[in-house]
Specification:
Blueprint (H helix, E strand, L loop, with lengths): L6 H11 L11 H18 L4 E9 L2 H6 L2 E2 L4 E7 L15 H7 L10 H18 L4 E5 L4 E5 L11 E9 L12 H19 L15 H23 L9
Antiparallel strand pairs: 1-6, 2-5, 3-6, 4-5
């Protein structure tokens, strides 16, 4: 059969890999669904393909100003940065706009002169902005989905102003079906289902079935735990991104 592209195909693949239909896999469908969810959650948390960096643009509403926070989409798992709000030194809405003053006084003719002095001057302007205005501090927790920006919401931002947020969103397998066929997801989901199978039948240890067959759930459980440990170690060592600053 082809590589799984849906949740049901992944479920069937894992059961076949464990021996179905030749063997009866003693596991309930709800348990299968739970183990698939566990595998996807681990994949999203640690695999570099489980989430993607994106820029999210949000138009501030009156409710945002009243609440003093922005409600984020549920698939946002971390915020890296927010673009500057109210840039007084280099913005276009201020009479103290340094770029405007420089060009008005012909201090830089970037069409005919070296770009290096202009770039250095702009870096200096940004330094002034950082010292006298600074960046807005923010706080975000993915389980609350609220982006708190430490500023005066009544005076520093207007309704309709766009806030651009740099962060990470999970990759939805129902939209990008390639996740269902990811090699690591296939093996890890199978191992989780195998562990659930072992836990189920270990309750009947040493029970002899007709024909002299004895259920060995403990052995299945031990094998599954060993496979899971190896796969999680492989995830951290081979598929995880380097640690970086992220709020979420």
């Amino acid at each position: 059969m082809a590589i799984p592209t849906t949740r049901e195909q992944l479920k069937d693949y894992c059961l076949r890999r464990l021996g179905s239909p030749v063997l009866h896999i003693n596991i309930d469908n709800d348990q299968l669904e739970d183990r698939i969810d566990d595998a996807l959650q681990y994949y999203r948390d640690y695999h570099y393909d489980g989430s993607q960096r994106t820029f999210y643009r949000h138009s501030v509403t009156q409710a945002d100003r009243d609440n003093k926070y922005i409600t984020m989409p549920e698939d946002f798992i971390g915020v890296i940065d927010i673009m500057d709000i109210g840039d007084s030194s280099v913005g276009t809405n201020s009479l103290f706009n340094l770029r405007y003053q420089m060009h008005m006084n012909d201090l830089f003719d970037i069409s005919a002169a070296n770009m290096a002095p202009y770039v250095m001057a702009m870096r200096h302007v940004e330094t002034i902005e950082e010292i006298f205005v600074g960046k807005q501090l923010y706080r975000f927790n993915q389980h609350i989905n609220q982006l708190h920006i430490d500023m005066d919401w009544e005076y520093d931002i207007e309704v309709g102003t766009y806030v651009v947020i740099d962060g990470y969103r999970v990759v939805d397998p129902n939209v990008y079906s390639g996740i269902w066929g990811d090699r690591w997801v296939l093996r890890y989901t199978t191992a989780l289902i195998k562990r659930q199978w072992g836990e189920n039948i270990s309750k009947f240890a040493n029970m002899q079935l007709p024909g002299g067959v004895v259920l060995d759930g403990v052995r299945i459980l031990q094998d599954a735990n060993s496979e899971i440990d190896k796969l999680e170690e492989e995830m951290i060592s081979s598929y995880s991104l380097p640690v970086s600053d992220m709020t979420g």
